[in-house]
Amino acid sequence: MGLLIEGARLVDPDIDICGDILFGENIEEIARKIPRSGHNVVDGSGMVLMPAFIDLHAHFRDPGFPEKEDLESGARAALAGGYTAVNLMANTNPICDNADVYGYVMEKAETLDLIHIEQVVAVTKGFDGATTEHWDELPQRVRFLSDDGNGIQSSELMYRVMRKATERGLGLMLHEEDSGLSKIDYRLAEDVMTLRDVYLAEHSGCRVHFSHVSTEASIEAVRRAKRRVSNITCEVTPHHISMADSDYRVNPPIRTRRDAAALIDAILDGTVDAIATDHAPHSDEDKRRGAPGMIGLETAFSTCYEVLVQSGIISLQRLVELMSSNPARILGLNKGYLKKGMDADAVLVDLEAKRVVTGESLHSKSSNTPLLGRELPAAIVGTIRAGKLLYRNEGRL
Ligand SMILES: [Zn+2]
């Protein structure tokens, strides 16, 4: 017996059709009409069904600060936002720079069995910006390394890291910030590091993914590099394209309208591969003390739909590519398309709905977002992972 969604608008980068879709172990069938024969049936009429979203960049605070977000609340926030796979950064406490912390996260995620978790491991031991010996004890499953939040200051070390990562078939996710320049000029801090690492990535052939690119000059550097080589990808966040000039504290900072427009141009011309949330839960107390970051899993789709699709800039198909198909490709997952044999992960959305973001309506343990009180378009009605409806919007499904 499978899960049959009837009469939905089925959208992925290759199709935009009306029909039925059957989920079992994998996606079993897509057709105009599928016989009901004993399946669980959900009426999808008036709704859009897309491959579930995949977040390349999120922070859950587990281990370390489970009162802000643990693997369970993070997974529930992800499901409520239409995500079934999340790539977690390494700045937990303790930092994920060893097989024990990595194993703790992966085992807990498997026991919870809510979403697919990928865990990034620190490039340098304890984010010390110097040592990489811990690479020798990493499990085979590790795909990406990152010192997100800190970046790697030494050019010599970055050169060595890229060569070593290339030899071992590992990729890097880079938070670009020169910490000395940050004290003087946040923009230069990102642009100088992005330029350096674009050159080093081209030189080494290392698989490099640029995280949360936020400035006009940085995205232009990535654009030029992508014309020359194929080992570079990048992401932008919903807040950097939608909240220009806001002073809500995030890192990298929210930039100007001109930067946001440049990022959107880069979405249009294919420079941007993915939209990632940089979901960063903080307590109210942390935010009062100036901690940078905002949560994003539960508002990302609505924000991107409003800014990019409702405004007529890109199609819904292109948004699926940015939020699901391309992240799946970057992480090497069998997800991101509505095709027979792909993982049975999908999200059902009512594009006509509106909702007001409130602290109580969020599944995250934190509510640090400037969107509280804002009305956003579109509602996630249900999220399917591995053929099971793991999230349903009460009252709507
Ligand atoms: Zn970062």
Describe this structure in words.
The protein has eleven helices and 16 strands. By secondary structure, it is α/β, with parallel strands linked by helices. The chain folds into two domains: 86 residues, Urease, subunit C, domain 1, CATH 2.30.40; 280 residues, Metal-dependent hydrolases (TIM Barrel), CATH 3.20.20.140. The strands form three sheets. Strands 1, 2, 3, 4, 5, 14, 15 and 16 form an eight-stranded mixed beta sheet that branches. The chain has a five-stranded parallel beta sheet with strand order 9-10-11-12-13. Strand 11, helix 6 and strand 12 form a beta-alpha-beta unit. Helix 3 crosses helix 5. It binds zinc ion (ZN). The site of zinc ion has 5 residues, from loops.
Describe what is shown at a glance.
It is built from eleven helices and 16 strands.
List descriptors.
alpha/beta; Urease, subunit C, domain 1; TIM Barrel; eight-stranded mixed beta sheet; five-stranded parallel beta sheet; 11 helices; globular; binds zinc ion
Bound molecules: zinc ion
Strand content: 15-25%
Radius of gyration: 20 Å
Category from helices, strands and their pairing: alpha/beta
- Highest-level CATH class of the largest domain: Alpha Beta
- What shape does the CA trace take? globular
Percent in helix = 25-40%
Alpha plus pi helix count: 11
Give the SSE order as H and E letters: EEEEEEHEHEEHEHHEHEHHEHHHEEE
CATH superfamily of the largest domain: Metal-dependent hydrolases
Which consecutive residue ranges, at least 5 long each, have pLDDT under 50?
A: none
Number of domains: 2
CATH-derived topology of the largest domain: TIM Barrel
**What's the architecture of the largest domain in CATH terms?**
Alpha-Beta Barrel
Characterize the biggest β-sheet.
Answer: 8 strands, mixed
Provide the residue-averaged pLDDT. 97
Distance between the termini: 20 Å
**Total strands:** 16
